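On clarity, I found the account of how folds are encoded harder to follow than it need be. For illustration, here is how one protein appears when written out as sequence plus structure tokens.
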Amino acid sequence: NIDVPEESIRDKVKADFNILLKITAILSKAHKADQPIRCPVVIEPLSAVLSHLYCNRFKTDLKIVSENETFEAHRCILTAQWPRLAKWVEKIDSTVEIDLPKTTLKSVIHFCYTGEISTLADVLLLGIELEDSNLITKATESLKDVASQK
């Protein structure tokens, strides 16, 4: 451990804060009221944030049970992309049982958080389950292409 005097830390924080104030003042003067200010800071993409939530199960508020396996998730994320689930959980506090194979459920949840799908069969199953005609169309077109190549 390195002993750093509290005063030097305070001085550093004050200096950094003063720099931020100056930058804010400059941006405010340069900013026109009808134009957004572009943020010079690189913000993590939403997909990375959602993927992080998916992997860490931070503050989940919904449990979905399939074939005696429980999957924890965030109600707002899943119901935004899964209309049928929204209907199922409308009046449920925290746990819902779903009559889906657990592998399909796992794929649906993974897709809702990450947008990633592992196989063409999963794309079709997800399209049907999520009632997403775009996914169904893409899956059937891809399956036709694969079949015509054989």
Remarks:
- The CA atoms of residues 17 and 23 lie 10 Å apart.
- The chain has seven helices and three strands.
- The first helix runs from residue 6 to 30.
